[in-house]
Write a structure and sequence with these properties.
Layout lengths: L5 H13 L10 E6 L2 E7 L9 H4 L2 H4 L16 H11 L8 E6 L3 H10 L3 E6 L4 H9 L5 E2 L6
Parallel strand pairs: 3-4, 4-5
Antiparallel strand pairs: 1-2, 1-3
Helix pairs in contact: 5-6
Length: 151
């Protein structure tokens, strides 16, 4: 088996992290990296101590909320947000970091990543959010798409 590139390596880990997700709609994972070292990871799911959607059902589905809209109407926190929160909780500086994500960040995550000082975003699956792309471009961050794990 050939040695994976750094992108392959971190995307493989991101995919593994997404396996912890408790979301009924989409499993996402994120890994914050700097100097080829993992700083923090995150997956989408409800805040600590709350019942998982697997137990109570999907609020978005119950209310008929379309994918990509009204992000605030959800019990869960996005993977990118959880990765940033974990770094903050444990005092890990992420300024200048790269984030590897299973999915292209939404506008809420894009704003958080910009303010957190993330300088590169690498993702596997597209997520159509024109405002996210616009804000990232204005911030000088051009997300890099890797079509599949091992690409």
């Amino acid at each position: 088996m050939p040695r994976p590139s750094w992108d392959e390596y971190f995307m493989d880990i991101t995919e593994k992290v997404s396996g912890r997700s408790t979301c009924l709609r989409r499993h996402t994972g994120a890994v914050l990296v700097k100097d080829k070292r993992i700083l923090a990871t995150g997956y989408n799911g409800v805040p600590k101590g709350l019942r998982h959607c697997e137990e109570v059902g999907c609020l978005r589905e119950q209310r008929g909320i379309e994918s990509g809209s009204n992000h605030e109407l959800c019990r869960g926190i996005h993977a990118e947000q959880n990765a940033v929160l974990q770094a903050a909780k444990y005092g890990i500086a992420i300024d200048g970091a790269t984030i590897y994500c299973t999915h292209q960040p939404c506008v809420l995550c894009a704003k958080i990543l910009i303010n957190a000082g993330v300088v590169e975003i690498v993702y596997r699956e597209s997520y159509p959010d024109p405002l996210s792309a616009e804000l990232l471009a204005e911030a000088g961050i051009v997300p890099r798409h890797i079509s599949e794990v091992g690409a």
